[in-house]
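Consider the following input, taken from an annotated entry for Serine/threonine protein phosphatase 1 (Succiniclasticum ruminis DSM 9236).
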Amino acid sequence: MKNLFGYSRVLAVGDIHGMHEKLIMLMDKIRFAPEEDLLVFLGDYIDRGPDSVKCLQYVHDLQLQSPDSVVCLMGNHEVMMSSYLMEKRVSYNTLIGDYSESWLENGGFRTLQQLNELDMDKKEGLLSWVTDLPVKFRYQEFFFCHAGIDPDVPLPAQSEFDMLWRRRQWWEQYSGEEIIVVGHTPVQKVRKKTRSAKPLFLPNRVMMCDTGAYMAGGRLSCVDVLSRKVWQA
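Applying the prediction step yields:
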């Protein structure tokens, strides 16, 4: 049953990074219902793990099937791939700089091999879809983006660079009213003493959902931002 937010669940999935088996396991646990749920993927579908193109194709197809219930955000790895493969700067031309040249060194080589195994139409279709992905999404009091924000800048004025790339412990400085939901920085690097692979719900209204799916001992996580229930694979 839908609540006063408009959805029974608002689900945020952290960085997938080519972990297709974990993605399928997670989606089986979630039991996503497009007529009731809102599903937000936080970016970085590719690189690091073994099955980047399978993951990219999966989220692409899911969004096509349920365009009103599935939001796919851009991650910094998608920016690097788009820049490298399409030589197309779109709205990210001021952000990419030399990052596009480092894509192969950051897991892109295997992704490139897999893309080149596709027929040309399917490859071009995926790349065209990727370059048009949004950088942010707002729903009620929730602000979703891949990486983070500048805590000294109002949310409407956030730069695409910060939303795609920022680390620098911004999550310790945020003091706004909206709830910020992000991936990008594995929680294992935030809580270095425990190395726990569980999403973080910080007291200053920040939710961190990247639980290092490709890392040793890491998991792929989904958070219902309304109830804070967590599913993992």
